[in-house]
Amino acid sequence: MSEPVIQSQTRGLESARQLSGASWRSALPQQVLTWLPLSLFFPVGVMYAGVLLFALSLLISGDYARKWLRVRSHPMLPPVLALTVLSIVVALFQSRPAGEFWSSFWHYQTYLFLLPFLAVGSGLGLGTGTGTAAAANQWQARAQLVFFGGAIYASSLFYLAAAGLLPTTTLFRSYVVYEGNKSILLGILLAIAAGWMLHAWRWHKNHTLLRALALAYVVIALLLFAKTRTASLIFILLCGLMLLRNVTLNWRSMLALSVLGLLLAGGVKYVADLPPPLTCLTKVMVAEQHLNPAAILLQRGVCTVHQIRNFNQGKQIGEDGMRLEIYKITGQIIAEKPWSGHGIGNWLSLYHERAQGMMSQAMTTPHNDYLLYATELGAFGVFALLWIWCRQLLLARKMLAGEHQERAMLLAMLGLTMMVGGMFNAILRDGVFGMAFMILLAIPLAGVTKK
After folding, report:
1. Confidence check: pLDDT of 129 > 90
2. Rounded to whole angstroms, how far apart are CA atoms 445 and 120?
3. Using alpha carbons only, what angle is made at residue 227 by residues 224 and 229, rounded to the nearest 5 degrees?
4. Which keywords does this chain's UniProt record carry (predicted)?
């Protein structure tokens, strides 16, 4: 073989190796992002370590111009930047409490963390810009399967904890002991996973026994062992969303919905007339009353109805229902400065000042994002928040008619979850919730453009 031919083949092999290396680096962020949903079911430090690893992979992958173009052309960019600009304006012209301002300010920037995730785009990340629709959704499809695997893992831990077989270590503590926001998040993640599983079951039309068993496995763990009413409500609403998406609205369906509504109203009235439960605290139901999971679920539902009734009648509410007390006092604070707000980081001091001697005095958040934004950013803050969340729902509707239609329902479910979850929890005020939702939002939103 002649020397020129040998040199030509050598250059060809070297070029192939360089292309392979570049392709590997380009695909690295997608590979990391594929596995990030699994980190949500572990202690929060694992999630943040995964986010840091993703940031490093994004730097290594190069092609920054293409990544910036993806972010700049994404329809989520304007509302996200609008909230950031508004928070800066409020910070400049309102009081900034020492010790609270900066941590509170950064909570309003949660959605900025979504932008680097959107920079990866759809597909394999090889920079080719070609491929079939199946290939274009490949990393997102794998990420969904990873998320489903995480939900099954979490459900298994809940079952083991209920059987007394799980140690109370750092790795498993949130599954054994109720730990506030982290425990609530685990329940909400199971609700989302169950909704996504239901959608995947219908979309792919492969109604296999294995899929049905996996769905039932997660739903039972959610309803009986996760011990969060918010997550149970969200799951019911996600099922309702699926129903509305797949049922034609005619007189029969409207009649069925009306009957269902009347039955629900009658059930609530019946429960409200029953004697109140002896306790509404889950830990007491387990330790002293020795109730089984199904009985706990039923009693907590009864407690919710009685707490709302007692609050409306001006009666004393228990520790489990103090959110209503928080909402009432926070509403009074908002009424003092409804348009301009009181400034970032000021809810805590204002609330503690007015809640002296009350059961909820020690609370650190209003457990409601709408009320928090209204208190600190004013009406414009609530408008900015709703712009982001409504944009997610509008994008989901638009995606139904495009190439990303399989992921449209995933985005709609996340949007509904955040809007409902924000009524009862600090979905964006707490980084445990906020970062988890940014990771999940990247799955349906990556690759969407302003077409």
Report:
1. no
2. 10
3. 100
4. Ligase, Membrane, Transmembrane, Transmembrane helix
Smallest Cα–Cα separation from 409: which of 447, 436, 449, 444?
A: 444
pLDDT in tens, 191-210: 999 999 999 887 776 667 88
325 touches 371 (CB < 8 A): no
- At residue 404, does pLDDT exceed 90? no
- Alpha-carbon torsion (13, 15, 17, 23), positive or negative: negative
148 falls in which pLDDT band (50, 70, 90)? Answer: very high
Break the chain into its structural domains and give their ranges.
3-151+358-445, 249-321
- Tell me the pTM: 0.87
Is residue 450 within 8 A of residue 69, CB to CB? The reply is no
Under the phi-then-psi rule, with left for phi > 0, alpha for psi from -120 to 50, and beta for the rest, what region is 315? beta
The alpha-helical segments, DSSP class H, found in 172-292 are 173-176, 181-204, 209-225, 229-246, 251-272, 282-287
The torsion of the CA quartet 423, 424, 427, 430, rounded to 10 degrees, works out to 140
Round to whole Å and give the CA distance between 346 and 77: 28
Cα–Cα distance, 120 to 424 (Å, whole number): 32
Q: Which residue has the tokens 């495009």?
A: 402
Cα(445)–Cα(137) distance, integer angstroms? 11
Q: Is 28 exposed, middle or buried (0-12, 13-18, 19+ CB in 10 A)?
A: buried
pLDDT tens by residue, 2-47:
444 434 444 444 444 443 445 777 789 999 999 999 999 999 999 9
Contact 181, 230 (CB under 8 A): no
